[in-house]
Write a structure and sequence with these properties.
Elements lengths: L5 H10 L2 H10 L4 E2 H5 L6 H13 L3 E6 L2 E6 L5 H32 L1
Antiparallel strand pairs: 1-3, 2-3
Amino acid sequence: MAQYSPQLDGVFVALADPTRRWVIRRLGHGPTSVGDLAREFPMTLPSFMKHVQTLESNGLIRTTKSGRVRTCVLNRERLAVIDDWLAEQRRIWEERTDRLERLVTDQQENQQ
């Protein structure tokens, strides 16, 4: 995996905001209209729509419009980008701590 990925950067930027994280968590329970989502926040609908657009432009949600109602759906596959990155970071750090443990163990054995 590349160290720098515009795709990964966009997902992390989108999730950096607590309002957008709440929307992701809420959509984990199922599709919801923008109006229902927006009711939870003390902000205007146009301001809330900027959060929706950020999530949509980074592929975390999809929206469809039927008449006057825009419905949001979580794109669970996009969250795999984060899972992959975290798994790689976990593997790197586990390898480093394993090497450090071997170094300390070898030094202790050599001193005895």
